[in-house]
Amino acid sequence: MIPKAFILALLIRTLLTLPFPQTYFQPDEFYQALEPAHNYVFGYGYLTWEWRDLPTPLTGSWWDLYVVGGRMRGWIWPGVFVGVYRVLQITGLDKTELIVISPRLIGILVAALTDYHTYKLASKLLGPGASSSALFLSLTSLFNAHLLPRSLSTSPETLLTTMALCYFPLPSLIPPKPSSDNLKPTAFEKDKKQIRTLQNQAKLDYIAMDRDVPSLYRVICTDNLPLSIILATTALCIRPTTISLWMFLGIDLVIRTLRSSGIIASLRVIAIAAISFIATFAASTYIDYHFTGRLYFPALTFIHHNIIRNVSSFYGSTNHLYHLTQSIPIMLFPIWLWWIQGFLASLIPSSILPARLRQLHSSEPSRLMARAVTFSIGILSFSPHSEWRFLHPLLPTLLIFAIPSLTASYRPTVFGIYRLSDSIRQYTRLTKIPFYLMLLAPIVPFLYLNLFHGKAQVEVINVLRGGQLGEVGSLVALTPCHSIPWQSHLHLKDMEGWFLTCEPPIGINSETHRTQQSFFYQSPVSYLQEVFPYPPAQLHEIANLTASPAKPTHLVLFGEALNRMETIKGVSSSVSDELVHLGYERVWYGWNGLDLLQDEEERKGGLTVWRLIT
Questions:
Q1: Which residues form the signal peptide (predicted)?
Q2: For the segment 450-506, what is each residue's pLDDT rounded down to a tens digit?
Q3: What's the rounded Cα separation, in Å, for the pair 220 and 239?
Q4: 3-class SS at 15?
Q5: Which structural domain, as residue segments, surrounds residue 273?
Q6: Phi, psi at residue 59, to the nearest 5°?
Q7: Of 63, 208, 403, 468, which is most buried by a Cβ count within 10 Å?
Q8: End of a domain among 286, 317, 348?
Q9: In angstroms, rounded to a whole number, what is the distance separating the alpha carbons of residues 105 and 149?
Q10: Are 73 and 39 in contact (CB under 8 A)?
Q11: Which residues, in sequence order, are CB contacts of 230 under 8 Å at separation 6+?
């Protein structure tokens, strides 16, 4: 039977996703999942540099051929959308709106499964009585609501990591003893009579009592080391972000097994983990080989270029406090106060804890996870390039740490629940203030992020695909790189087009390297006068350009670029003036959210479409 918690999560995720238009968050949502899958199935689409063979050193060693000169992305996650697109292709439904909606359905399923396994993980860390609180925290998390349903690679990584933790052999959880102190007195005489008729407190369900008693104790998540390693390794093959987390937990498991069962048992644990890891890694390698016809190891290539060679800092550098000062506060909105109390209660030895924190319930599994998460975030903080979403796989675990503090002052009413709001709070074990704060605080930012912010960047493609601005024979996007989806949303086979790129300097001199984006924005008017309709490029690259010399039928630009002025040969002109001079007229404008909240200056001013006048 399908668990009710999963059905509830699936229903809420559907209501929080499908009714809203798709907005733009980051390029990886499209170019690291949907676009490669579309290219594989339909034969057209754009593959970024991560999906192509990288320059190979002349030494030609095994490492250089398969790692340094390999590809940085694997096909496990895009392979899911390959299946979706293949079904649409076979049924002929790829010409319908399902080409856009179907990937969103996959995102809803991933999000709901993550919510459900957060529910299960809480039972393993704190006991079954904490599960419903964890489900509520996961469903009301603004970060989850905005990112989990998207096709970002961090979404399946979060799901797989949470599932792996559910099955990982953590220390045994000792059920708390039942207590009558948490029963709220009732004024109803009939309720008092019912209470008096109970012969044993264990007959009260822990859902009502907010306490898990031994006679009702049930295991929602059983230990399964091979399955846990398979899930964790699959997550690492998608993105190796959580490698430090699993190193910490793995070493701890071996030490615990050695102390409790001896060296033979610990060697058995190592053997099981190694076999499971190797088998999963081999399966992942085969999947990549199946899709590309080439042997390569994307996880190793990712680590080599992004960490060892520090290529990722080309897209921006962050300091070592980034996750502490930005990622964690943003991810844990608005439960900061309760989370920090619960986390410290699990992390710091009870002997030096303040009396208030010492009273909070912290189990041995939660204390281990607190240390593991701290170690993992500490290691990730040394990365020169960080983003909020890099910690997303840890968010389900982080949310659970807030539960002891949130539920500490809750006193359930066993009988006489007549109002829906009270019933829901009874289920979640939350008092009024945190309950309504978590329920209401995310509403305004969620509505803004999913109705307005970045909406035009996706809407413009839907408008072009629908033919509302005329037949799109060719399209050029003079915007910051990867600002709009491409063929995964356009799905126009006969369309020619290109957009500004921003590939990092791999295998070339970084001091002289310049991207198409930097060329254009340095002097956009000069570019339109002297280079357009060719892409901006360095002189030695011009001979390799494949763009048509004909003017594209449609141009996409942000409003900020239109007002840029230059004086050339004594004549001042703006980008919009040059577009008119080239024979274009503005045919569409889309508001893209508040300029103040745009992550790049070049993405301000809304989005416009210019059409060539025939």
A1: 1-17
A2: 999 999 999 999 999 999 999 999 999 999 999 999 999 999 999 999 999 999 988
A3: 28
A4: helix
A5: 4-175+217-317
A6: -65, -35
A7: 403
A8: 317
A9: 8
A10: no
A11: 276, 279, 280
